C-alpha cells in the first residue's frame, strides 16, 4: 500500500549561485578605470582629513576598517537605509565606496554585477574590500596607474 507521501514528487533543491571569481589585478584596474570615468564617480578624490587618515593609519588598518564597514553596511541582504547608508566623507573608505560604486547594493549591482537581496558571499565581501583598497592605493600614489 502506498501513502500519499510516496506519490508526491520530491521538492527540487534551490539552485546554488554561481561561485564568485575575483578578477585579476589587471582586470580590477581596468574595471576601476571604467567606473572612475563616470562623471559622478570621477568627482571623488581623497582630500583633507580623509587623505590624512589614510596616510596616518596605513593600508593594513584601512583594509581592516573597510572589511568591518562593508560587513555592517553592505554585506547584509537588505542593509539598513540601503542607498543612504554611506556618508560622502568622514573616512577614506566612504569616499572610496562612492568612487568605486560600492556604496549601496544598487550601485554594487550596476557597477560590479553583484546581485541584491542576499548576503554577500565571503568572496564577494573580500572583492569589495579589494576594490576599495585598490582605489585608495591609487589615490595615495597619484591616481590611476
The helix-strand sequence is: HHHHHHH
Give the low-confidence spans. Answer: none
Class by SSE composition: mainly alpha
> How is the main sheet built?
none
* pLDDT averaged over residues: 88
Number of strands: 0
Report the radius of gyration as a whole number of Å: 19 Å
What is the helix content?
Answer: 55-70%
Our measurement of the CA-to-CA distance between the termini, rounded to an integer number of angstroms, reads: 73 Å
Helical element count?
Answer: 7
Shape: globular
Strand content: under 5%
Could you describe the 3D structure shown?
The chain is mainly α. It is 56% helix and 0% strand. It is built from 7 helices and no strands. α5 crosses α7. The longest helix is centred in the middle third of the chain and has 26 residues. The N and C termini lie far apart (73 Å).
Characteristics of this structure?
145 residues, mainly alpha, 56% helix
How would you sum up this structure in a few lines?
The protein is an all-alpha fold and 145 residues long. Helices cover 56% and strands 0% of the residues. The relative contact order is 0.18.
